[in-house]
Please model this.
Amino acid sequence: MQMRQADIVIIGSGMAGLVAALRLAPRRVTLLTKTDDLPGGSSHWAQGGIAAAIDPADNPADHAADTVAAGAGLTDPAMADLLTAEGATRLAAWVEAGLPFDRTPEGRLCLGREAAHGAARVLHAGGDATGRTLIADLAARVRAAAHVTVETGAFAWDLVTSRQGAIAGVLAHHGDAGWVLHRTGTVLLATGGIGQLYRHTTNPVEATGDGQAMAARAGAVLADMEFVQFHPTAFAAGRMGQVPLLTEALRGAGARLLDGDGNRFMEAEHPLAELAPRDIVAKAIGRRVAAGQPVYLDLRAIWAAGGATQFPTVAGICEAAGIDPAESPVPVAPAAHYHMGGIVTDEEGRTSVPGLYAAGEVACTGVHGANRLASNSLLEALVFAERAAAHILASPAIAPAPVALPDMPATGAPPQAAREAALQAAAIMAEGAGLLRDGAGLAQAQTELAALAASTSDERILLEADAIRLAGEWRNRLLVSGLILKAAAARQESRGAHQRADWPATRPEWRRRQHLTIDGLLTDRAASRPAFLIDR
Ligand code: SIN
Model:
């Protein structure tokens, strides 16, 4: 095994990882990503844009109020204020620095409106190719940055901690160099979400909860794990894994949801009809899909008005599926899209593990509460990656404490078995901890997952590069799925993205966040923030 000294290690190459890497200059950064190329994670796939009150007619307080309202009682209002106030100024700085946002022919920034936003404040880039456009630009800046060493195809297996519990390194497997221990006292996790833990997701293959699992094994506090947001209108592709997204902006532009008989149904569900909050639309569609009824998104009016130019990504998705949206409505179904929960961080992105920071979807800053407002995720990634970078820059460089060499995994499940087990686990999560849960289903999912874990552990082979990533993702998947099931089983109410058939009401006594570690739920039921945040 090689040993390398690093000043700061970032794991993950979506919005949070790239922005933090750039902002950490002139400190030396090693950026590890398990993907084969530099852009990675869900940011690249974002179609909706990035919300910020940058219009003089808008203001951050209104954006914060919308954020808090969407969070169903669990958003931390101070964090929402911070997100929206700093978001506006920090995003304006990126606009100034040339991030290529869409503009009107007169040169003004185009501002779209999305569900549950009280104003038009969503910036896009490349129409509905916002993530692809922004991430390609940021990745090019990172590649050109002399202070960043990018390591692609590098799977972070685990964080290494000192006897005192502080960060002392990262054990990673590199496709070209094999096992490498990166010795560092500062790690920023930016590994994204958990969508691949579910049968259908808008997230890419890399979204397997790696950062949440590594942090949990290192002793970090996590929170809000039960809150998994399902996007209402993923393309109903009829296959498992990543499915294309049909952006919410389509409904903002007038797309209608139709049932199998061609009738609109959202007007009877909510006064805002298709523009109702995301969880309400997802539930209305999910109920029908679960009953075997197809649901369609009707884009004909948008396409008649030239929508193919405004939504080139959606046009490509439909073309690949052989559907002409000008003629036929497009089949849709909900899919796991965003995880509000994650590693608890403070305002500076610090976790409960000294030296460990987190930003982006892997983190839980408290801004999203039980339900994230559309287009707040890229903003959160940007704001808190910058805040974490600023805090690291202002802190003395930490020399890592000496550690014993960690054990490296030698054997694991054969690749095919690991892939099949992952699909089975995703089906278990979709059945037991999907859009609509209940106590019996959650308990059954816990039992089935444990049985699946046990059945895969007796088939072991020597691990090679590909198999190491699969084996690592498998153990991460099991751990994070277990934490989601545990938190969801404990929360006996329905709130935001957590909907329970056996506890359909929102219960005032449950207006609190659940914090947990790898050992289970934290017992201090009164605390709304864990002690490490209160003490700071
Ligand atoms: C979308 O384009 O519908 C997704 C936007 C988001 O999740 O914020």
